[in-house]
Amino acid sequence: MDLVLNILDKDVTRTDRTHEYFQGENNAHVQVLHDILMTYNMYNFDLGYVQGMNDLLSPILVIMEDEIDAFWCFVGLMSRMDQNFHMDQLHIKSQLSNLHTLLQFIDAELAKYLVENNASNMYFFFRWVLICFKREFLFDDVMYLWEVIKI
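Below the sequence we write its predicted structure tokens.
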């Protein structure tokens, strides 16, 4: 539990600190982010907290603002995405494999190139799939993207 708490503390202090909602020293929203993740850690004790969950929660918290509503929205999101966070990574590896299969149809030349260069496992997509492009786009663009793809 101490290891999880240590990881969670480090992740929370780095989460979206450039966004106005989380800026500043002793920001109350950062503490709420921490509290929700700790509550989720206890709520879903089998899975617990895994790095990346903070990135999925922060946009929910910005939109919902209410801690209880944000928690239950996060629980709902995680009920659809929790397999991505399992230690065996089977689900996310399956998704990456599906991406490679799709790429073979869309751009066979690129798919072949990836195979030739030992990158057909698509691990460079890992973070994109795990946290739904959260770190790849601007905060507002991520919220729009999530709305469009119904995250």
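DSSP finds eight helices and no strands in the chain.
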